[in-house]
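Predicting holo structure, 2-OXO-4-methylpentanoic acid bound.
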Amino acid sequence: MPRNDIEWTKLGFGFSDVNCHIRYTWKDGAWGEAEFVKDPYITMHIGASCLHYGQECFEGMKAFRQKSGKVVIFRPDENAKRMFRTAVRCVMPPVPEQMFIDACDKVVAANEEFVPPYGTGGSLYLRPLLIGTGPQIGVAPAKEYTFMIMVMPVGAYYKGGLKPVRAVILDDWDRAAPNGMGDVKVGGNYAASLFAHEKAKHDGWPVELYLDAKTHTYVEEFSTSNFLGIKPDGTYVTPDSHSVLPSVTNMSLKQCAADLGWKVECRPVPYEEIKTFAEVAACGTAVVVTPVWEITRGDEVIKISEPDAVGPHLQKLFDTVQGIQYGVVEDVHGWCHEVKL
Ligand code: COI
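Done. Tokens:
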């Protein structure tokens, strides 16, 4: 049962203490057993490769308490696959898919009382983390790794839930190089965005949008999430680029759009095309579907909608994906993974 000492409807997107996280160590060529750890601090060698050479990757997922009372995790198999690909790219030992899903099940079950009640709009956010913890001072992969999953109850990422935000393009900073690591989920991609992100926020834009690093002519993604645009005829358009993170939410929304009979296009999206979209949104696990009502680049301001207007397509996508997650829209693709409590 959910705890009764948390103000569930007031949750934002921030850290809070829970019962425990789950932790595994890889050494001598194999993963060890699961440990439940109460202490949120971790101790590691000062020469750990994650601290010096960025051997670090993470994931983001959510667990939901459904209307029926079941607790489900949304598509953990897809996050497992993505973390596997990221680990290979960073020369870290991949976490096998079944071990990843078992770890999710165990840590959610151990923190069941922190899964927000149905109807509050909250969820339990899961943050798997894989880091090189063995000392490594010459540039090379470490010999020891730690895989952990921390969890915390969360509400909306941007204040106000499905409230449209303004975005800005800052041409002085890029997120990911064409053959870099934009397509995998490493902390370095977020580090690359922090300076521009803080500048954008300081100047009044909650999120910044990146163009392709080589030519600055194609839309890539937001700092926190993927980009999607809806054409006036209802076509769902999202960038296809090697330096964009394959978002599990975007993948799911594309499927929902196709199921609704909408045309879906995953292809290069020129910056100039933005002004032709009737609706634009940021999409990802944390932000779900966040409408973007205006995009500024230098002196050019592209107004997509009125500041408070949520377009009908974005509303439908939001209602569909959240409906599946909370168990009120049929889960025809089997995306919700039940946690046995
Ligand atoms: C997520 O959506 O889960 C992410 O990891 C993105 C992060 C900016 C919160």
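The CA atoms of residues 78 and 205 lie 31 Å apart.
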